[in-house]
Design goal:
heterodimer, A: 3 helical TM bundles of succinate and fumarate reductases, two-stranded antiparallel sheet, 6 helices, B: mainly alpha, elongated
């Protein structure tokens, strides 16, 4: 067991004594992609939250703009390819990160850990449906 | 042992490492719940511009600004402790892991307080 010396603060990093094990080790990819998607989300979510909650704050407070989020503001933003790309990337990454996190929690619970393949299939189904739903919502602003 | 056993190991039930682990899961589950609500709200755009703006006007009332600040605190803790987890997995700061947890909590409190200050005009507007 690759335990951290003080209280095993993270769950099962697939490494021994600081050395990463082979990418073919079971559980390597969910572990690695959770961290990679998390790091990407730090940057994308910072932009997302800033644009939705702080960028227009001065205009709303001064009465030059009704609300921070209005259809027309979102439409004009998503008309720019960069913002549309960022929002599609956010949708895919946050669904992967969230549902892969649920998978980690399930594996810490022995009842579900014995039904690993069923859990994986169910979470992928939820993720694909939610992605289609979210993609339709995003496209409603640009089509 | 990697993911080959019957289940993942949990941390020992004491100390900063356990609290960090527990809060990372609680905030994670809460954020997944919020994600589905968020997708549902944005999907009202499918019903047209008028519907979207009517729903969003309600969701920008002061009570929801306060809920947004709670959401921000949840995201900030999950992000900062997530960075701590990545550092620990890279073998960095393992002996400082308790301090890194409390640092995550402190930064979350300070940044949420700052965001609350800037959001006050939205909470108390006429």
């Amino acid at each position: 067991m690759a335990r951290h010396p003080q209280g095993n603060p993270t769950v099962d990093p697939p490494q021994e004594a600081g050395r990463p094990v082979s990418s073919r080790a079971p559980g390597f990819w969910p572990w690695f992609l959770q961290r990679a998607s998390g790091v990407l989300l730090v940057f994308l979510l910072a932009v997302h939250i800033w644009m939705g909650h702080f960028a227009g704050l001065g205009d709303v407070v001064a009465g030059r703009q009704g609300e921070l989020v209005e259809f027309d503001i979102v439409r004009r933003r998503l008309a720019q390819a960069l913002f549309l790309t960022v929002d599609f990337a956010l949708l895919a990454l946050v669904l992967y990160h969230g549902l892969n996190g649920m998978y980690t929690i399930l594996l810490e619970w022995s009842v579900a850990a014995r039904r690993r393949r069923a859990a994986t299939a169910a979470l992928w189904a939820v993720g694909v449906v939610a992605f289609i739903y979210g993609a339709r919502a995003l496209l409603a602003f640009v089509l | 042992m990697l993911h080959t056993g019957t289940r993942h190991s949990r941390p020992l039930r004491s100390g900063a490492g356990w609290w960090a682990w527990l809060f990372q899961r609680l905030t994670g589950v809460a954020l997944v719940g919020y994600l589905f609500l968020h997708i549902g709200v944005i999907s009202t755009a499918l019903a047209g511009e008028g519907t979207f703006d009517a729903v969003l006007r309600v969701l920008q009332r002061p009570v929801f600004v306060v809920l947004d600040l709670a959401l921000l605190a949840t995201v900030l803790y999950h992000t900062l402790n997530g960075i701590r987890v990545v550092l620990l997995d890279l073998g960095l700061g393992i002996r400082q892991q308790g301090g890194l947890f409390w640092g995550s909590v402190a930064l979350t409190v300070v940044a949420t307080a700052a965001a609350t200050y800037f959001s006050l005009p939205l909470v108390f507007r006429g």
